[in-house]
Every structure is written in structure tokens, then in C-alpha cells.
Amino acid sequence: MEHIEYGYQLKGSEAERYVEGYLQGKGLALIERNYRCRFGEIDLIMQDQMVVVFVEVRMRCSQVFGGAGSSITLVKQGRLIRTAKHYLASLKSIPPCRFDAVLLSGVKGEGMEWIKDAFCE
């Protein structure tokens, strides 16, 4: 991330905006950001052709406790699934969908890994 100044630490909302721009550059279109309901929150809801993509953005400065990927626990996955179902219930028809994770590492988010179909129901 070249636009980040030396000594600057990326914050959660900035990380989500960075990932949003990255995914848009890969052809996905934003539907909604920070979708919230009583079950939880989905960072980004995007469209990848005919597929609705629920994106979880995780950032960790260090790998000490397993890094960003290990923070998406089964409990967190359950919350995301329930939140996605809540969102889908508002639609006229249920489209194909998937859960992606974008993992950022380092204080400036310099390492990024996009995992398509990170988990399923």
C-alpha cells in the first residue's frame, strides 16, 4: 500500500475500504458495506457476476496468535452465516452466494490474501 505514510498504522475501516477498492479492481461490484443486523455484521457485500459475495476483512499485525485467518472461528462463521441469511431474506429470490475472506497482515496491511469460498454453511 504505497499511499500509507511511514509510521502510520492502518485502521479497520480503512482496511475495509482498501479491500473494497482491490476487489472492485478485480471486477466485483459493491452492493453494501457494513451490513448489520441483530446477528452480526458483514464487512462487504459484493457482486461477482451472478454471485453475491459476503466478504470478511481481517487484519492482524502479527502472526503470534495464528494471524488473520485463524481469527475467523467457527463461532464467527456462524454469525456471518446468520447475518447473510438475514440479508438474503430481504431479496425477492435467493442468488448463488459465497463467503470470501480477505486477510491483511502487517501494521500497514502490506500482505494481502484473498480466499474465495473461505468457508461454507
Automatic annotation (TrEMBL):
Keywords tagged on the record:
Endonuclease, Hydrolase, Nuclease
Q: Which GO terms describe its molecular function?
A: endonuclease activity; nucleic acid binding
Asked if the record carries the keyword Membrane, the reply is: no
**Superkingdom of this entry's organism?**
Bacteria
Q: Which SUPFAM superfamilies did the record assign?
A: Restriction endonuclease-like (SSF52980)
Q: Does the keyword Nuclease feature in the UniProt annotation?
A: yes
PANTHER family recorded for this chain? UPF0102 PROTEIN YRAN (PTHR34039)
Could you say which protein family the record assigns here? Belongs to the UPF0102 family.
What NCBIfam families is this protein classified in?
PRK12497.1-3, YraN family protein
The protein, known as? UPF0102 protein SAMN05216387_11720
What species is this protein from?
Answer: Nitrosovibrio tenuis
> What does the organism's lineage look like at the top?
Bacteria, Pseudomonadati, Pseudomonadota, Betaproteobacteria, Nitrosomonadales
